Amino acid sequence: MKCPFCSHQDTQVIETRVSEDGDFIRRRRQCGACEKRFTTYERPEVNFPTVVKKDGRRVEYDRNKLLGSFKLALRKRPVSTVQIDSAIERIEEKLLHLGQREVISARIGELVMRELKKLDKVAYIRYASVYRSFEDIDEFRALVDEVRK
User: Fold this and answer.
1) Residues 70, 139 share a domain
2) pTM metric for this prediction
3) What gap in Å lies between CA 41 and CA 12, rounded to an integer?
């Protein structure tokens, strides 16, 4: 693997660890030229379903988009990155278990809302208010009342 610091091609694996849940392998590497250390992660490649948008466009599933949605909803909220990663992994697992080649974006949005509701009620309301495109204050109030129960 090429060194990210000096682009030298010769790097050596110093340490290898399997994650707690066994989903990926973490490797510590050292460059043979500049001797700097860096970490790489090895994950199995899986085929997620294609996402069908509201306008009918089809796009590839992108974990970074999902992460961005979580980070925006959870901005300045007391939720750790570990909790966010776990929520995303649960969503991805559900998408894979659907066994479908395509999934509508609304289905992913509902999965995100379900996970946010478990993580943080304020983030859930933030996300839902944008995702559901509320037209008036009564719809927003109904959502807040739902969360209070």
Assistant:
1) yes
2) 0.64
3) 14
